[in-house]
Amino acid sequence: MALGSGNYANRMCLHLLLLLLFSVNVAFSDTLVTSLPGFDGDLPFKLYTGYVNISVGNAEMFYYFIESEGNPIEDPVLLWYSGGPGCSAFNGLIYENGPLAFNLTDFAGGLPKTYYYPYSWTRTASILFVDAPAGTGFSYAGADAFPVTDTKTAEQVYEFLRKWLVEHPDYLLNQLFIGADSYSGISAPIVVKRIIDDNDAGIEPRLNLKGYILGCPRTDTDINENSKIIYSHRMGLVSDELYKAAKESCNGSYSSVTTSQAECYEDLKLIQHCTREINKNHILEPKCTWASPEPYGESVRRALEEDTDGLFLSSSNTSTDYFCHTFSYALSYLWANNQSVRSALNIREGTVQDWKRCNKSISFKSDVSSVIDYHKNLSTKGLQVLIFNGDHDLVIPNIGTQQWIKVLNLTIVNDWHQWLVDGQVAGYTIKYSSNGYRLTYATIKGAGHSPQEYKRRECFDMFDRFIHYYPL
């Protein structure tokens, strides 16, 4: 790491002190990866991979750490993990926030090629991508560690983060943000509260938490399910008459409906029929099906059937107007299960035999239905918060996100307005405040679930402005 900061002497003292305090109990295990199969030349950024052993389930948590391409001494550190539950942080690294992307245009089978993506969040922050919970991606644990729950996921992520920062004390003074998307919107606020609680209790080392970032976050089961019906109507997928009938028969509550509520149940069945063939991740994109398993292979086809609702046609469709967004997901299976790639990433042999982008077979039990109370508690802690949604997402509709934010009863300091990238409307935003707590909510125009997969450049600009305290 380059010198050039007035804090360098302090950092070195802290570094040496923490080494003395924790070196007996913590083993260093990361490796610098300078090149990757399928990438031309050396990597133009610093990538480290490794494992951290945690006591919760005696799990080995795998991570990718990419040092900021800007000023790693001063730039924030962002912990990022994906939703699912069971989706690898590889999603963030190659599809959303990271500096790598698959070359889709020239793929004709074999090992997929990657290239450097310039609008990476690592241009302005160091990002620690972790496969969480155990059983996700390359993270693993013994059979007695399961099932995993929402609260156990939060415990695993928190212990991982604390141990990683102890192993890497150079980053303890950097501003820290917790980031997650989709289903991990449930566990991430629990992680944030745990950090604050331990900081308040004087647990050392103190983590320099500044805020959190959530993309299309699942937050409250009832609000999320209700918002799907409202959103479907607003977007013209459901007629006025059917929506009005359902609203009356269900009394405006569409979750946990049983057959005993006959009229409501029938109305919801009609609504489901209207949206059944809609791609929930992005309502304007096709819901694709398989035409052929070639050139990917039967194992990839089976994995993707578990991975997502909509699959893709063969790669021959990539040059037509009927290109499927999920085509690129198949490449992740080919890439991460390639032995040369695994060797470059220093994956432990015999630990994860069959990597999946989203492991739907993970033994998971939901034990938290709402984290609104966590957000209410955090709204008293003076944090900087960014919440964002794609406006074509039917998995976590923006309507629901706006609804639970209003429940926090924050003061609007910058009302609803458009935000721009290159002079064009990139979405809409509103900013709230409460006793030092700052929450920015933003939509990304034309994006689905998760927004970065569809509008990567715009999402970088959003993140870059937020992380450096510039308004959208």
Write a structural description.
The protein has a domain of 313 residues: Rossmann fold (3-Layer(aba) Sandwich), CATH 3.40.50. 31% of the residues lie in helices and 19% in strands. It contains 13 helices and 15 strands. The strands form 3 sheets. Strands 1-2-3-7-4-9-10-12-15-14-13 form an 11-stranded mixed beta sheet, sandwiched between helices. A two-stranded antiparallel sheet has the order 5-6. Strand 14 and strand 15 form a beta hairpin. The chain is globular.
CATH class of the domain at 8-220 and 368-467: Alpha Beta
CATH topology of the domain at 8-220 and 368-467: Rossmann fold
Q: Give the helix level as a range of percent.
A: 25-40%
Give the amount of beta strand, in percent. 15-25%
Largest sheet: 11 strands, mixed
Short key terms for the protein model shown above:
eleven-stranded mixed sheet, globular, 472 residues, alpha/beta, Rossmann fold
Helices and strands, with pairings:
Blueprint: H1 8-22, E1 31-33, E2 47-54, E3 59-66, E4 77-81, H2 90-96, E5 100-102, E6 114-116, E7 126-130, E8 148-149, H3 150-167, E9 176-181, H4 187-200, E10 209-215, H5 221-234, H6 240-249, H7 262-275, H8 298-307, H9 327-336, H10 339-345, E11 364-365, H11 372-378, E12 384-390, H12 398-407, E13 411-421, E14 424-434, E15 437-444, H13 456-467
